[in-house]
Amino acid sequence: MKLITAIIQPHALQAVTDSLREYGVSGLTITEVAGWGRQGGHTEVYRGAEYTIDTIPKVKVEVLADPADEKDIIDLVVASSRTGRIGDGKVWTTEVGTVVRVRTGERDADAL
């Protein structure tokens, strides 16, 4: 099993979830996160005072998948979230040992 994790721009979330649903992904987890990378932070002015914002809001999307679907899912996420500008995000995979559906006790591929 693979855990595919993507950090993307918030405005790209709907396009990513739509493409994953069309592909047949049966479930995913979405978390609002913040951080920085090459994009860094930015400065804002509020009531005449300048503030430095060190972290940028992003969305983390996690999908458990069969290893055979790993490349296709990554390609879908990248294609549906790419704008070509700095800060588009990252996608990575992690090996998962065992997955169990709590309700039924099904394991691994049956638990997806």
UniProtKB/TrEMBL annotation:
Task: Tell me if Transcription regulation is a UniProt keyword of this record.
Answer: yes
Recorded hits in PROSITE patterns, A to Z, give:
PII_GLNB_DOM, PII_GLNB_UMP
Print the keywords alphabetically. Nucleotide-binding, Phosphoprotein, Transcription, Transcription regulation
Q: How does it assemble?
A: Homotrimer.
Name the chain's protein: Nitrogen regulatory protein P-II
